[in-house]
Specification:
Length: 253
Amino acid sequence: MSGHNKWSKIKRQKGIEDAKKGQIYTKLTKEIIMAAREAGDDVENNFKLKLAIQKARESSMPKDNIERAIERGAKGNEGAILEELTLEGFGPSGTAILVDTISDNRNRIVQEIRNVFNKMGGTMGSAGSVAWLFDKKGIITIDSEDKDPDEVTLQAIDAGAEDVKIEDGTIEIYTKPTELEMVKKALEAKKLPAASAELSKIPKTAIDVDEKAAIQTLKMLERMEELDDVQKVYSNVNFTDKVLEKFESGDYE
């Protein structure tokens, strides 16, 4: 899970930069529309919508934008032409890549993802080719400042968490997808508010690759995330701190 943790932090940092350009708002709008279309606009009874709204607020998305997206999804207007699609493939050294998308043009996004794979040393896979290597999980992140990590871990397990990881000033709590809201509420009742909560796909086993392949995989993931129709990307690579530092600094060939 460590590879996921570290890459997620980079994505969150880049998300702040994207928000300045407005790109992240496009992605968040689609996510809200799809959640509202799927289960209605009642936030209390639509946890997927609640998560999407929370992410939008964390990215400082204007309230009016959020409300318009909810309305569009609930009424089935624009939401009716949007489609969720997960694409799969192989990156450098056979690394597994999953790409979650929401698009109004299936052929376009499939071709765009295929182009990224082909241009960056990867191969587009068929449905199911790598999805089996990942598990769906809920992830709750808590700021560990002024908290006893061991005590938080015990409380999280008691609340129903499956696993807990402590790293770089944060405590990441893993749950079954269907129990994310339950665990989150239980932790909040214990005065442990979540800095973020999301549904994600975690590699069952993270693999180690050489530095060149790791950097190339990160570049591929970043290129895919730059596409408007891409919501999330996942890899089974265990990225080392050294590789991540090089990637963030741009100090690589």
